[in-house]
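Worked Example 4.2. Consider the chain below.
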Amino acid sequence: MAPIPTPPPQPDDNPESYVGLDAAEAEQQARERGWSTVRALPPGSIITMEYVVGRLNFEVEDGSVIRCWKG
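Applying the procedure from the previous section yields the following structure tokens:
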């Protein structure tokens, strides 16, 4: 039987620290802190529920991050 792959660790980061930031500034900070994927979504976007290790999601309204979560 093949071993179960171990995903790389995620950055030790608090998603709440991005709320209120300009979206471009937040994305730059997230990448500098080690997030491999950063995506900005408008409020109410329909997205799939799969969890992706290393991804940080921003809900962006009027150019500012209003919500942030991992996966």
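Residues 42 and 60 are 5 Å apart (CA to CA). Helices lie at 23-32. Compare this with Example 4.1 before moving on.
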